[in-house]
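Bug #77: duplicate submission created two jobs. Keeping one. Sequence:
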Amino acid sequence: RYAELQALASRNLIEDLRHQVPFELAPGVKFSGESRRKPALRYVADFAYRLDGRLVVEDVKSKVTAGAAAYRIKRHLMLSVYGIEVKEVM
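Kept job's structure:
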């Protein structure tokens, strides 16, 4: 998929192509009774780029990984926190 996106970028059809792009979905927290702070909840997108000025976030998934509970939660949070609907590429 990266080669396809690079080809689009070289023809100026997409801009600002990045890979392994982190998004913070929730800040780190410290629960009472625990000595260490829990790290922030993050989602790392496979690709992000701009198409017609709009940010597009893509994740390459198989049917199995697309159905994983952790991924579904993070995809939900991307939409609710950032207003970005993750584009799944199978």
